[in-house]
Amino acid sequence: MHLQESGEMYLETIYILSEKSSFVRSIDICEYMGYSKPSVSRAVSILKKGGYVVSDSEGYLSLTDSGRSIAAKIYERHTAITDFLVRIGVDRKTAAQDACKMEHDISDETFLAIKRHAEKSNKSVSDNNT
Questions:
Q1: How high is the mean pLDDT of the chain?
Q2: pLDDT tens digit sequence for 16-64
Q3: Based on the domain organization, do 65 and 102 belong to the same domain?
Q4: Which is deepest, 14, 36, 57, 90, by most CB within 10 Å?
Q5: How far separated are the first and last CA of the chain, in Å rounded?
Q6: 40 is in which domain, residue-wise?
Q7: Residue 114 confidence (pLDDT)
Q8: Using the 8-state DSSP alphabet, how is residue 106 labeled?
């Protein structure tokens, strides 16, 4: 099952919330994303059917291995692109908003090139500071 951008956003949200607390509920996703309970419930149901999320008897959500893999990839893209945009002069709020749009559509090749460039740039800055 190929995930659409919205599915990736939900997985990323669950990933972020699960890093802060071991208990993630649908209501936590609602609050974090600013979405209604029915919207989140529908999305979580789709993610469960796709094998990306499971819930326990108390309704706590967990990412499956495949869900965690996708979420970690999207989160890495988000943070790396945000940091890159900030380093080239974009304010952090705009950089985060733009990264959110880019993280889903950018190819692996382009992302890796940005990541390599940013790492090289960071190394140059750190070498110059020593």
A1: 91
A2: 999 999 899 999 999 999 999 999 999 999 999 999 999 999 999 999 9
A3: no
A4: 14
A5: 49
A6: 5-69
A7: 87
A8: S
Segment holding 17, helix H or strand E: helix 5-20
64 near 78, Cβ under 8 Å?
no
Among 38, 49, 47, 110, which Cα is nearest to 80's? Answer: 110
Number of domains in the chain: 2
107: its two tokens: 């190819």
Same domain membership, residue 37 and residue 78? no
Question: Residues near 114 by Cβ (< 8 Å), separated by ≥ 6?
Answer: 80, 81, 84, 106
Spatial separation of the C-alpha atoms in residues 104 and 118, rounded to whole Å: 19
Show contacts of 13-18: CB within 8 Å, 24+ apart.
14/53, 14/61, 14/63, 14/67, 14/71, 15/63, 15/68, 15/71, 15/72, 15/74, 15/75, 16/75, 18/62, 18/63
pLDDT for position 36: 96
pLDDT of residue 124: 67
For residue 60, give the nearest of 22, 30, 7, 6 by alpha carbon.
Answer: 22
SS3 2: coil
